[in-house]
């Protein structure tokens, strides 16, 4: 899925009354750091206003084109008409129209410090999120390695059990082979026994099969 562009972010923000970094990141499915960069660019370009104390940016409204005015006049907020070259016909002294005090430089400095602190806190939070993601990735890697070691241990145990079973079978076969040789081989029979011919016939019949089994066991 392609990453949302700055233009996509502007279109998304225009539909909101105000915006913060987490809302933009979740809405566009982008990283928190990229959302912060987009919002800072929007603040510089006037799409959003300055960040507020609660971490939200107010979204600037797009106004329609102003209504045409007659030459020599302009509209005042209370409906009075300002004539070219004359004071407004409001009955208010001109010196009383501008009573708002100018912004204090100290206040501007405090706001700038607050903005800097908020941005620094945002960057610290972003770094912590990245560290947490690295820790999660490391945990997943450790779990995968543990499972791999577990599979290897089980395979080694199975081989060991198979080798032990093969060794027990070999020992049983060798014991049976010795018993057959001792009981049927003519060289081991007493000289005064009358069944020598029968023992010899049984030995000649059985022993080649025993040797055939032994050869198969050694070859495979």
Strand content: under 5%
* SSE order, one letter for each helix or strand: HEHHEEEHH
State the low-pLDDT regions, or none.
64-100
Distance between the termini: 55 Å
Integer average pLDDT: 76
Shape category: rod-shaped
Biggest sheet overview:
2 strands, antiparallel
Number of helices: 5
- As a percent range, the share of helical residues equals 55-70%
Instruction: Give the beta-strand count.
Output: 4
> Structural class, from secondary structure content?
mainly alpha
What is the alpha-carbon Rg in Å?
48 Å
Sheet with the most strands: spatial strand order:
1-2
What would you call the quaternary organization? single chain
Overview of the structural elements:
This protein is mainly alpha-helical and 220 residues long. Among the domains are: 1-60, Winged helix-like DNA-binding domain superfamily/Winged helix DNA-binding domain (Arc Repressor Mutant, subunit A, Orthogonal Bundle); 158-219. Helix content is 61%, strand content 5%. The strands form two sheets. The protein has a two-stranded antiparallel sheet with strand order 1-2. A hairpin with a 5-residue loop joins strand 3 (73-75) and strand 4 (81-83). Helix 2 crosses helix 3 (32-45) and helix 4 (105-184) runs antiparallel to helix 5.
């Amino acid at each position: 899925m392609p990453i949302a562009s700055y233009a996509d972010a502007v279109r998304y923000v225009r539909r909101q009354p105000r915006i913060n970094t987490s809302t933009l990141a979740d809405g566009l499915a982008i990283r928190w750091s990229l959302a912060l960069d987009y919002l800072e660019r929007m603040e510089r370009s006037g799409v959003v206003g300055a960040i507020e104390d609660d971490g939200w940016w107010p979204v600037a409204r797009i106004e329609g084109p102003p209504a045409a005015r007659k030459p020599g006049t302009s509209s005042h907020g209370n409906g009075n008409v300002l004539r070219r070259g004359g004071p407004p016909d409001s009955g208010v002294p001109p010196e009383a129209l501008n009573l708002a005090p100018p912004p204090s430089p100290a206040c501007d400095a405090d706001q700038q410090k607050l903005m800097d602190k908020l941005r620094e806190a945002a960057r610290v939070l972003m770094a912590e999120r990245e560290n947490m993601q690295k820790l999660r990735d490391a945990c997943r890697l450790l779990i995968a390695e543990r499972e791999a070691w577990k599979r290897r241990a089980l395979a080694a145990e199975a081989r060991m059990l198979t080798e032990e079973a093969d060794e027990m079978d070999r020992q049983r076969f060798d014991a049976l082979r010795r018993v057959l040789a001792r009981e049927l081989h003519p060289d081991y029979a007493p000289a005064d026994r009358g069944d020598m011919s029968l023992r010899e016939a049984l030995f000649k019949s059985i022993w080649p099969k025993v040797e055939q089994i032994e050869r198969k066991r050694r070859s495979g």
